[in-house]
């Protein structure tokens, strides 16, 4: 994310700003949509591309690892070379990769294309926020614009599974093809609606740190997913995980010695922010794994159609939206710490109830109770996490703090999904059902219990280590003051 003050000097309000916001918001909707839109299509992708359950996880993993691992680098590039050109490069990359995803003829082609899609998000998403901060000089207008932008992003995340259900019923490839005309429209419109801007304080970004970190995470995830089909002590599994950890350690060393690191190590000296990022890892672990495994169970074990599967997630979107609204209203009254602890407690109970899928196939009795509680708890947690991640952060560093939080969400989801999917698939393969299908429901139960415990631990960490946090809702970038370009 962008970390510097914005330019140019405030003048008359740009008459194109709201039209530009519409285009930027549509692209953000598309970017977030593609995190979840593949879930319902996974079983059909598995059949058409002849993929195993463990390799299928890469369709999700490749995207979130690239997006999360390169997000901060993308923000720095936007500051350095220009926000508009970085945004356009990201959208172009995303559009081309969407087309190759749609035309994919093998699992490898799909995974590589999804990784490039994630790279596109890592460039376009932070540049979008920087453009909005430049377009909207008035603080009240900026808050409204960022609220609309964030709302569209949230809508993309919650509606992805429902949209995917209907599109997959026709042909799963169109969940990718529909991105192409949207990307083309943005490439044509944004140059007419947005002027170029960059930060006068931007420095050369730490490419080596970003490459080491992302490569290390890819290696760790590869090792975890390989463990689904091999023993945990198998040479390939151990070498991949150990090599990945070495690369991550090298990244930390490089960052510590860099004159301009992507994330200054001093950023992690604040106890509340560190706690928030740690519990976000636990939250993302459960969140990503829940969607991935439940989708496979509903379609492969329960025999549901893609439309029925997609519609089954509709209460989740409704309840998470309600939870966000309730949480935002309650936060100034009960405080960030209490709200976040309550959200994690509800999530832990919801994840525990999700294990009922192993004892029956009733939607109302075995799926809906856990889904509703998990969604409400998640909705309550989001506003609190947003404030806690910005605790004692200066206005100029608010975008950095937000970028770290978003990167942690993506990376945590990738690592958690790799771990829990591996556990679930390994159990399923070794415990076949009478019809010789793997017991994915039983494997999911084990993974959900692990997720429930991790969420409970996250809630305890919040209670034990989080300091008092200002409960007035905050929005990254809303208070950044423009700075003039140097003569």
Low-confidence regions: 1-9, 482-487
What share of the residues lie within helices? over 70%
Specify Rg, calculated over alpha carbons.
Answer: 22 Å
**Strand tally, please?**
0
How many helices does DSSP assign? 19
Mean pLDDT: 85
Query: Could you give the order of the helices and strands?
Result: HHHHHHHHHHHHHHHHHHH
Structural class: mainly alpha
Taking the alpha carbons of the first and last residues, their distance comes to 26 Å
Biggest sheet: strands, sense, closure? none
DSSP strand (E) fraction? under 5%
Account of the protein in words:
Keywords: Cell membrane, Membrane, Transmembrane, Transmembrane helix, Transport. The protein has 487 residues and is mainly alpha-helical. 74% of the residues lie in helices and 0% in strands. It has 19 helices and no strands. It has helices at 17-36, 42-48, 53-56, 58-69, 71-81, 83-102, 107-135, 139-170, 174-177, 179-193, 207-226, 235-257, 271-301, 306-312, 314-334, 336-354, 363-389, 398-430, 440-465. Residues 1-9 and 482-487 have low confidence and may be disordered.
Summary?
The chain has 487 residues and is an all-alpha fold. The chain contains 19 helices and no strands. Helix 16 packs antiparallel against helix 17.
